[in-house]
Amino acid sequence: MAAHNNYGAFHGDAEDEVDSHSPRGQQSDPELPQAQELQKPRLLLMGLRRSGKSSIERVVFHKMSPNETLFVESTSKLRKESIVLSMDLEIWDFPGHLDVDDPSFDGEEVFGGSTALVFVIDAQDDYLEALQRLYTTVTRAHKVNPEISFEVLIHKVDGLSDDHKIETQRDIHQRISDELADAQLDNIHLSFYLTSIYDHSIYEAISKVIQKLIKQLATFENLMNILCSNSGVEKAFLFDIMSKVYIATDSSPVDMQSYELCSDMIDVIFDVSSIYGPDTQDATLSPSSNPNPGNGQGHAVIKLNNGMVLYLREVNRFLSLVCLLREDNFEKQGLIDYNFRCFQEAILDVFRLRKHGPGALKDKYSHSYG
Ligand SMILES: Nc1nc2c(ncn2[C@@H]2O[C@H](COP(=O)(O)OP(=O)(O)OP(=O)(O)O)[C@@H](O)[C@H]2O)c(=O)[nH]1
């Protein structure tokens, strides 16, 4: 153990060794791209002390309730975690006192193998020190790994008025852009999100961060566009059901209200199904607390009192599609179901192709292989 190592990570004293965690007892799905054939994307969570990093990770990936995070202890050493969602992911949660200029910090190792750096700024606090840390972290990381993406969460905005939120984002953006420009580093791109664990904003932001890690995102989006335009669907989200992160949506703009409705549907359906649903192998929808996988056949409908319908269809045991459409269009449910089956098959083909290469679909599309 390195005596003066203030992040305790790479010399064997990390708080948790890379610990394979799958929420609610899941195992990796052989149908999905797995770590051995993909390099597992690694997300770094950084920020000052008590900015809310660990809370974000616990709320989104461990289903901790926001109020419980009040009792989360300050992180003293790096926590590494391996998360199995619809994709494998590694998350490294750094303690707030981490100094990337400290000689014991191995920037090559940390930034070299990482895909995204999520920097959390506490918007309820004076953020000048955080901006200074953001600048040093970003410049160091970019030097080591120009491919790494920078995601800045302006966090705890639940305490701010709408005007104040916008002003804070503008100010933070301006200050960091000026500093980077002064150092002639304006080629570094940072994305900003206003977040809070007390509403859906944190899920939306993490969804966007995760989507950047998905190489097949454009294919998923295309498939969703085709499904929506041929089925009269206004908006559709492909959700990772355990985290409620959406890994893809169609290309129409995301409005927060539709996202909240679709995301809440997952909670409602899985809560109801965990109480009233069958708890055996034939469970069609796998309830949140039920380790039995769904079989990709589950579906649920909620008719809203404003003439809209929410329609959920399970794609496989990790993913569900949630659509928002007009009740009139839902009259052609047979057509929607047929289109959904084509969509489901195409999504699963993408995963097979990714895992096994073009040969995986040889029998199915023999004409295209000569
Ligand atoms: N109001 C509000 N409080 C939050 C939010 N997110 C986290 N917190 C609170 O912020 C405090 C610190 O959260 P942590 O997750 O421990 O922060 P951290 O960045 O991991 O802190 P260190 O472990 O010291 O690096 C906790 O009391 C959380 O309840 C948020 O969105 N809004």
TrEMBL record:
Chemical reaction(s) catalysed: GTP + H2O = GDP + phosphate + H(+)
Main location: membrane
Organism superkingdom: Eukaryota
Pfam families per UniProt: Gtr1_RagA
GO-annotated cellular components: endomembrane system; fungal-type vacuole membrane; Gtr1-Gtr2 GTPase complex; nucleus
GO molecular function, one term: GTP binding
Keywords assigned: GTP-binding, Hydrolase, Membrane, Nucleotide-binding
Cellular localization per UniProt: Endomembrane system
Chain positions covered by the region annotation Disordered: 1-37
Record GO biological process: cellular response to starvation; negative regulation of autophagy; positive regulation of TORC1 signaling
Stated family: Belongs to the GTR/RAG GTP-binding protein family.
Function of the molecule: GTPase involved in activation of the TORC1 signaling pathway, which promotes growth and represses autophagy in nutrient-rich conditions.
Listed PANTHER family: GH16429P (PTHR11259:SF2), RAS-RELATED GTP BINDING RAG/GTR YEAST (PTHR11259)
Assembly description: Component of the GSE complex.
Name of protein: GTP-binding protein
Higher taxonomy: Eukaryota, Fungi, Fungi incertae sedis, Chytridiomycota, Chytridiomycota incertae sedis
